[in-house]
Amino acid sequence: MTPTTIAMVVEGQGEVAALPVLVRRMAAELAPGSWVDLPRPYRVNRGTLVGAGGLETVVAAVAEQVGPAGGVLIMIDADDDCPAELGPRLLGRARAVCPGLAVSVVLANREFEAWFLAAAPSLSGERGLAQGLERPVDVEKPRDCKGWLSAHRTDGRSYKPVSDQAALAALVNLRMARKYSPSFDKFWRDVGHLLTGEEQ
Questions:
Q1: CB of 18 within 8 A of CB of 25?
Q2: Where are the domains of the chain?
Q3: Beta strand pairing status for 4-10 and 42-43?
C-alpha cells in the first residue's frame, strides 16, 4: 500500500504536536484503513510565510517529503487578517511552486484555539477546564482564545499551547467544532481532500 503523505507547515510550537493529532483523528474517520504518513510539521514564523519569497521557499522544501499521494497542508492563524483574502493569496503562491502537487492553505480564524472554543462543551472538565463549559456566541471573533481557555480553568493554571494544545486536540469533538467554526469546517474539507482526493 502506498502511503498518503501530508507535509505540514505551521507557525506555532504548540501546533507542531497538535496538528498531527487532528489530522490522524480525521484520517481515521475520512479514510479508515489508509496508511497516512505525517512527517514532523515544519515550523516557520508567520512573518516569513507571508513575506515575499518565504512561503515559496518553505513549500519547495517540504514538497520533497511528499510521494505520489498526498500533498502539503499549510496552517496558520488568521489573527487580524481576513481568511477569505489572505488564504487564496497564499494558496496561489504555494501552488505556483509545485503546480502538480495538492496544496491546501487553512487560516484558523482567528487562532487555532478558536476551534476549541467552537466545541467547548466537549472539553468540560478536561485539562483543568471548568465543568459545564459553554461556547462563546461567535467563536471566531475573540482575539485572545488562549486567554479564554485560561479564564475557564479551575486548577489555577494558565493554558499553555506547548503542554495543552495537543492534549485538547485529542479530546475535542471534531463534528461540533466543524458545526460552529467555519474555518474548522474548511480545515476538515481540505484535509479530507488531501487524504482521499475527493471533495468533502
A1: no
A2: 4-196
A3: parallel
pLDDT in tens, 98-138: 888 999 999 999 999 999 999 999 999 999 999 999 999 88
pLDDT of residue 200: 61
Average pLDDT over residues 22-35: 94
Alpha-carbon gap, residue 68 to 76, rounded angstroms: 25
Beta strands in 36-124 (DSSP E): 36-37, 42-43, 70-77, 102-108
Cα–Cα–Cα angle for 27, 190, 56, rounded to 5 degrees: 115
Kindly report whether the global pTM for this prediction surpasses the value 0.70: yes
Q: Which helix (H) or strand (E) holds 6?
A: strand 4-10
3-state secondary structure of 141: coil
The model's pLDDT over 53-63, given as tens digits with 9 standing for 90+, comes to 999 999 999 99
DSSP secondary structure code for residue 119 in this structure: T
Residue whose C-alpha cell reads 481532500 in the numeric block: 193
CA-to-CA separations, 176 to 35, 78, 166, in angstroms, rounded: 26, 21, 18
Cβ–Cβ < 8 Å for 66, 28: no
Cα(192)–Cα(186) distance, rounded to whole angstroms? 10
